[in-house]
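Reopening this ticket.

The earlier resolution said the output was attached, but the attachment link was broken on my side. Pasting everything inline this time so it's all in one place.
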Amino acid sequence: MFIGRIADELARSVDTLTDTVSETLFEPVIRLGVTGLARAGKTVFITSLVANLLDRGRMGHLTAAAEGRILAAYLRPQPDMTVPRFDYEAHLADLTSAHPRWPDSTRAVSELRLSLRVQPSGLLGGLSGPRTIHVDIVDYPGEWLLDLALLDQTYAQWSADVLHRLRRRPLGEPYLALADSTDSTADLNETDAQELARRFSAYLNAARLEGFSDCTPGRFLLPGDLAGSPVLTFAPLPEVGKVGRRSLYTTMEHRFEAYKAQVVRPFFRDHFARIDRQVVLVDVLGALHRGPEAVQDMRDAMQGILSTFRPGRNAFLTQLLMGKRVEKILFAATKADHLHHSQHQRLTAIIEELTRDARERARFAGAETSAMSLAALRATTEETRAYDGQSLDVVRGRLLEDGRMAALYPGELPADPRILLGNDQQSWLEGDFEAMRFAPAALTLRPGDGPPHIRLDRAAEFLIGDKL
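Inline output:
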């Protein structure tokens, strides 16, 4: 079995080497990872990005498009036939129908290849002629990304960390009551193990709905075909002294290690470790609406996400000998269309502050990072209205809950984002900031134009512009 594993790793290394040489010498491939936590808008981001690269009328800040050097763009079959294809056509139909709706959220890994026929710039470009560049977009749940941090933790360490958080949250009380009353030193009773896992899963789902980001293991939220399997039938327990091999505690520990070995490591090896550009989408406005704890939790999640990347430059020999590294990382605050443009700079300042430490560590390792606010699909229009003797900058759109048209003035974001991350609760927004959920607007697109957006072209320029 050990020899077989070595042979498998050698074969995979040879395949990676062959792909890298082919990509470097012939048709370059950019593997762009797109992730984010729940409700950050991953599916909409990918759908709008692809639509706007196919019809580039709204991509003025993507230099190659503005200069007319992207001669053609078309979808091609993806090279990895074992990964589901990102259902671009169905998602675009959802957004552009007569009664548009937001597409379903990401629940597993999917992939899409977009090929661009590009005329290089400069003298050498004129001599060499157009070349083809493939953009392989990899969509995966942010909850799975957070799982990578588990690889460096023991079961006892993970349990202590999770239980510490649960004891600070009312949501954790039902699980804690069960865990505290369970004798984990006794021999395994499978019914007890299943009830612990069920109640812990209920906590994770409730925490995600409340806007918390630290909801690991991620497959408890998106189990797929693993639902009900032993590898998802574990939960955190207080550390105990010496226990028998058949005890509940030992069984939970073994299943935690199996989860890392059979679920987390394959994801890292087969998908994550091959990414060289990454965008992390963040629902900052949702966290602000929920309050200080949600914002601090999001900041901690950003730190954890960055720790899972292998940031650095992708020199040719680095790719050949050690595999790809993440060269560029973009942290993007989504749903900027829920604010008037006069507040976009403040939203950008908040995402910059939330990710400051993470971005500094990535820069130190040689990766290029950026933070911005954007809306992959603009769902609102802007207006200025008179109210109580003053002018208010508002956004207007169709409410998701009941379809009514409404104008929203959410309140002022702070000029100094640091007050949102301090310990002074009196400096918080004090309920002055509100968030609404808007439905997508009906679209009428001119020939050559993709869906309307805010700064999607700037995001594309940062992520892939240098390769075009």
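Reporter confirms the inline version is readable. The first strand starts at residue 29 and ends at 36. Confidence is low (pLDDT under 50) at residues 1-22, 311-322.
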